[in-house]
Amino acid sequence: MKKQVVIISLLVLSLVLATIFGSCTLAKTERLQVVTSTSLLTYIVQQVGGDKVDVFNIVPPAQHPGDFDANPGDIQRLASASLFLVHGWPGETWVPNLVASANNPNLKLVTISVDGNWMTPSVQMQATDKVADALGDVDRKNNMTYQKRAAEYKVAVLAKEANIMGDLVTANLSAVNVICASFQADFVKWTGMKVVATYGTPESFTPQLVKELVDKGRAANVTLIVDNLHSGRDAGKGIAEELGCKRIILLNFPGGFDNTETWEKAIDYNIEQILKAVAK
Prior knowledge:
It is a single chain. This protein is α/β, with parallel strands linked by helices and 280 residues long. Helices cover 52% and strands 14% of the residues. It is globular and about 60 Å long. The termini are far apart.
């Protein structure tokens, strides 16, 4: 009799555990499976999707998308995903082959195309609307939730911008002339600084180009060189040395440095570098 009780108890326990873990598995699989090409998209998906989505980013935050090489794990992620969000940037030439390798007929590829630097609040908000629409198109039952969360996140972005602008106005950045990496030009202009000239990746540098940049810097009394972490963190180092001015390295993607894993922390990092550099 005792043996029968033990067996029955074990069967009941097994059924309970199966129900619990089965429910957890089901809850997870019911979430919209999303893959993103950069941490910029990942963070917005997290803000808009909340607990309705599982999102996985494939390009490391400190790496330029044009230098990315996919691995089998990335293909596997896409093979089981419903949505793949990309920017449509020239550097994302690997996207078609990666999608083909995943061989997932249920995968929807959506390009979130927004002009400008995604670190600026206005572009962040435009991208948020497009991400919300993309999520809602694939997961219509949760569309209203996505739209609501997108609106809430945009309010937070506006509040962040207002807070930052107070510091930028106080610093009087309109009097600061800079030469910067082309991928940082829009962000630098947004802060109020004047961009005298821009440059590309280190591979594009020639002695003649460096001379022209240095000459422009001297003529315009440039006091700051702004490099971009993701397109050559030390590209402007030689120019700064020739001009005898300060140089900083800014982010274009959340997570590029420690404690910058969110858009808010990443933009705070950039602003902190700028304000330190221009402080008298």
